[in-house]
From TrEMBL:
Pfam family for this entry, one: Mqo
Organism this protein belongs to: Litorihabitans aurantiacus
GO terms assigned for molecular function: (S)-2-hydroxyglutarate dehydrogenase activity; L-malate dehydrogenase (quinone) activity
Keyword Repeat: no
Name of the protein in its database record: Probable malate:quinone oxidoreductase
Enzyme Commission designation: 1.1.5.4
Length: 486
């Protein structure tokens, strides 16, 4: 529990997920003599979005995520975001390999499983798009191994369940990237915290930070310890630097700092559900993460996919997500979460988003009204032979999409992640969702560079030694050569 004394720690990290775990281990590498404290409100780290059953476990590398490769008006495929995301995920792999080499993570990286990433599309228009996407991506060395086919027999060889019982009335196409991965972010997060603790990091659990206020000696954290009594013992912690990596709880805590950089931001919560099966007969015949195309009005994070998942050594299949709505901002949050973040400065952005995203509202209403039979029909678009028996509907994590102030439109709904830093570099936070955990190393390197890079350029250089992909991920996307119409 934080002390009641006026002792000031160097770095306070709020939230026990993959972001704080990554930043904690980076800080021990860059500033080994500093004090680093982590504050997690639940009993253990990695119980919210970093829990393996609260996310899809995809090692997001833009191999199968069609929303990272939009079509331009002239018919060309824009691959700039795909290249950046791919390099960002490579940075995460480089960090994990570095930690394994240093003996801080298991050498066999058991939390990463090789699982090919695939796309499956149906219909002539979608087949043509996937063909052009494949041609554009494979022109870049990062995607040179991606395969493409319109042959149902080849698709059946790659992933048998996709073609069993399919009537063949519509043309189909698929891509396959053998280097794809499934990641158990829960075990990874816990392993990284254990490594950080070996280096002196203090991890407080069952301790909730309710507010962060600036003081003459840094930042004061109002904390509540819920271990000893239902109301919790209240006290205070003090830090020179604060990182808010609290998932859906980050917005309210950043608002409490009153830094102008977060003014006007709001959140839009979307929950998710998946169908899951451990049926060994099905699991044995599907080894892939297969992404399709989102329905009209659906957010990018709701792209349907049929996934192999490996959690604690046990393999399952998951299909989804099916979107839901809750005013909670955290899976283990409060129904008041959304209302607590409403401010005069973000009312107009919220209203503008409601005005401009009627398609999303219609999609959410349709999803909320979907019956079990409708969910089964969605699964059968991927796996025509699917039967209801053996599949269980599970509730996954709660995601809070950013509503970002936009001078031209008043507000805009964002589906990525964004690092927020104060002008003086003493506080930082992360807002948004996908690609999230997969790009944690890149996001936390951004925190280090923005907050400390001017005074400690050697830290930035050290990070790029550990993760060479950081430099390529930071490259100007306009330097990438666009692929023309194919």
């Amino acid at each position: 529990m934080p002390s009641r004394s006026d002792a000031t720690v160097d770095y306070a990290l709020i939230g026990g997920g993959i972001m704080s775990a990554t930043l904690a281990i980076l800080l021990t590498e860059l500033d080994p003599d500093a004090s680093v404290h982590v504050y997690e409100r639940l009993l253990e780290p990695a119980q919210e979005s970093s829990d393996p059953w609260r996310n899809a476990g995809t090692g997001h590398a833009a191999l199968c995520e069609l929303n990272y490769t939009p079509e331009r008006p002239d018919g060309s495929i824009d691959i700039t975001k795909a290249i950046a995301i791919n390099e960002q995920f490579k940075a995460s792999r480089e960090l994990w390999d570095f930690l394994a080499g240093a003996g801080l993570l298991p050498a066999d990286t058991p939390f990463v499983s090789p699982v090919p990433h695939m796309n499956l599309v149906i219909g002539a228009e979608n087949v043509d798009y996937l063909r052009r996407r494949h041609a554009a991506l494979t022109a870049h060395p990062n995607f040179a191994d991606m395969e493409y086919t319109t042959d149902p027999a080849v698709i059946a060889e790659w992933a048998p369940l996709l073609m069993e019982g399919r009537d063949g009335a519509d043309p189909v196409a698929a891509t396959r990237s053998p280097e794809g991965t499934d990641v158990d972010f829960g075990s990874l997060t816990r392993a990284m915290f254990e490594a950080a603790k070996q280096r002196g990091v203090v991890v407080h659990t069952s301790v909730e930070v309710s507010a962060v206020r600036r003081s003459s000696r840094g930042w004061d954290l109002k904390v509540r310890d819920s271990r000893w009594n239902p109301l919790g013992e209240r006290s205070r912690a003090r830090a020179r630097f604060v990182f808010v990596g609290a998932g859906g709880g980050a917005l309210r805590l950043l608002q409490s700092t009153r830094i102008p950089e977060v003014r006007g931001f709001a959140g839009f919560p979307i929950s998710g559900q998946f169908l899951r099966t451990f049926d060994p007969a099905l699991v044995a015949r599907h080894r892939a993460k297969v992404y399709g195309k989102a329905d009209g009005g659906a957010p990018p994070m709701s792209v349907p996919h049929l996934d192999t998942r490996v959690v604690d050594g046990r393999t399952a299949l998951m299909f989804g997500p099916f979107a839901g709505f809750s005013v909670k901002f955290l899976r283990f949050g409060s129904p008041l979460d959304a209302f607590r973040t409403i401010r005069p400065a973000n009312l107009l952005p919220m209203l503008a988003v409601a005005r401009d995203n009627l398609g999303l509202v219609k999609y959410l209403v349709t999803e909320l009204l979907a019956t079990p039979s409708a969910k089964l029909r969605s699964l059968q678009k991927f796996f025509p032979g699917a039967e209801r028996a053996g599949w269980t509907l599970i509730t996954a994590g709660q995601r809070v999409q950013m509503i970002k102030p936009d001078p031209k439109r008043t507000g805009a709904l964002q589906f990525g992640t964004e690092v927020i830093t104060s002008a003086d570099g003493s506080v930082a936070g992360l807002l948004g969702a996908s690609p999230g955990a997969s790009t944690a190393a890149y996001a936390m390197a951004q925190v280090v560079e923005r907050c400390f890079g001017a005074d400690r350029p050697e830290w930035v250089e050290r990070l790029r030694e550990i993760m060479p992909s950081l430099a390529r991920a930071d490259a100007d996307p306009h330097d990438a050569k666009p692929a023309g119409p194919v």
